[in-house]
Amino acid sequence: MLASESSPIAVISNINTDLLVRRILAQFEHLAETYFSGVDYDLGERELDHALQLDSDLDMFAAAIGLTKTAIQTIQKDDGTPIFSLFCFAVDCMACRCGG
User: Fold this and answer.
1) 3-class DSSP state for residue 88?
2) CA distance 8 to 6
């Protein structure tokens, strides 16, 4: 087991991904039962369609997460400022460095 696999963020990410996969699969099954109940589709064809759609959705999700991770790492490397300090939540902006 790698050190990065046991990090809390990786564990939470894996749990969220598993829940997302189950939810998407349940939605696909519900839609298939609702709209194709009277149609005699081949079960193998339906399962293949579900698998391909799920694979596509997971690819898009992974790409979005990867892009977000890269963007955050790039911002943090620019000047060493933590990402959350880039946003001003102060009531009085004169106290912060946002310039607003």
Assistant:
1) coil
2) 6
